[in-house]
Amino acid sequence: MAERITAPSYNQDLDREEAGLRPKYLKDFLGQVKLKENISVFIQAARKRGESLDHVFFSGPPGLGKTTLAGIIAHELGVEFRSTSAPALEKQGDLAAILTTVGEKNVFFIDEIHRLKPVIEEMLYTAMEDFEIDVVMGQGPGARTIKIPIPHFTLAGATTKAGLVSAPLYSRFGITARLDFYTRKDIQQILYRSSRILAVELAPEAAPLLARCARGTPRVANRLLRRMRDFAQVWGNGIVDLEIVQKGLSALEIDKKGLDKLDREILNTIIKRYQGGPVGSDTLAISIGESVDTLEDVYEPYLIQSGFLQRTSRGRMVTRLAYEHLGLSPNQNENQRDLF
Ligand SMILES: Nc1ncnc2c1ncn2[C@@H]1O[C@H](COP(=O)(O)OP(=O)(O)OP(=O)(O)O)[C@@H](O)[C@H]1O
Ligand SMILES: [Mg+2]
């Protein structure tokens, strides 16, 4: 799992160079056109009024650019960007320390915002709404609560699990931005941009194939590009051309639809053990030796998005496309059941 190159979640080993590839301004943030247009308008309006930008909520699968966009907003507003992640905020004091020192109109980013502790979340409510926080002074019977004003800041929250964010918190964000998987064309543009930054030549006939295997996810695209750069340096002349990409993908066991070994194992398991489904996610997770969370967050989104898997009320089912891709036919199940 740690080395799974196509898993979209951040991986310290695989994504070391990520910071250098991260766009700083909206013009370099490729794709997501509609979202970008809107954000651009909101930023310009806030600047014109000389006010802080409304609080922004980012949601969407890992690696699509939530953190990147939050940083871009700060850059475009010309303010400072301060960032933390919900699990790092343990006590109210941790949050109070940040909120009382954050600069006027600055962007304060909280990642994994669905994981806030209730006491922290409560403190955020008044901070977001009234730009003040309640702080308890003293202890025991003599303790009293005082209100402390805080600067007008912009909270940027991000999550891969928007459904787990409470309604009161969610409702306090004025701007909500849902990031979706990128089109292949957009991924290609991202690959070209990254190849320029990494100073590696990406051949025009190789880019579409690489883009097809990136799961609509910029993080995966960048990771694949860096691996192809390695293959090109060792096996070729440093240019990432079609032959290098074909060889490289096959070395990484990624097929032409961008599925890797584990994706194929999931589909194969559903077909061979559960006659194509439906099978509950708990059962499926056990069968492939992963947690339900990992299955749902890391593996399933791409399989569903690319039409190989369906989530139904009775469980997961593979589609006809999955049978075709694996070279199996639905009625082979009867014979295959004997194998298990
Ligand atoms: N629209 C884009 N254009 C160019 N590069 C992008 C774009 N979106 C993301 N990237 C690249 O993908 C990488 C991952 O993006 P980012 O860290 O913002 O994802 P995320 O949505 O915050 O993921 P996670 O949910 O894991 O926190 C960035 O370092 C950046 O290089
Ligand atoms: Mg992030």
SSE blueprint and pairings:
Layout: H1 18-21, H2 33-49, E1 56-59, H3 66-77, E2 81-85, H4 92-99, E3 107-111, H5 118-130, E4 132-137, E5 144-149, E6 154-159, H6 167-170, E7 175-178, H7 184-197, H8 207-212, H9 218-235, H10 242-251, H11 261-274, H12 281-288, H13 292-305, E8 309-312, E9 315-318, H14 320-326, H15 333-336
Parallel strand pairs: 1-6, 1-7, 2-3, 3-6
Antiparallel strand pairs: 4-5, 8-9
Helix pairs in contact: 4-5, 7-9, 9-10, 12-13
The chain binds adenosine-5'-triphosphate (ATP) and magnesium ion (MG).
Adenosine-5'-triphosphate binds next to helix 1, helix 3 and helix 9.
Quick structural summary:
The protein is α/β, with parallel strands linked by helices and 340 residues long. The protein is 45% helix and 13% strand. Helix 9 crosses helix 10 (242-251) and helix 12 crosses helix 13 (292-305).
Q: What report would you give on this structure?
A:
This protein is an alpha/beta fold and 340 residues long. It folds into three domains: 32-178, 3-Layer(aba) Sandwich (Rossmann fold); 184-251, Helicase, Ruva Protein, domain 3; 261-339, Winged helix-like DNA-binding domain superfamily/Winged helix DNA-binding domain (Arc Repressor Mutant, subunit A, Orthogonal Bundle), CATH 1.10.10. Helices cover 45% and strands 13% of the residues. It is built from 15 helices and nine strands. It has helices at 18-21, 33-49, 66-77, 92-99, 118-130, 167-170, 184-197, 207-212, 218-235, 242-251, 261-274, 281-288, 292-305, 320-326, 333-336, and strands spanning 56-59, 81-85, 107-111, 132-137, 144-149, 154-159, 175-178, 309-312, 315-318. Helix 12 (281-288) packs across helix 13. It is globular, with a radius of gyration of 23 Å. Residues 334-340 have low confidence and may be disordered. The protein binds adenosine-5'-triphosphate and magnesium ion. Magnesium ion binds at residues 66-67, 111, 158.
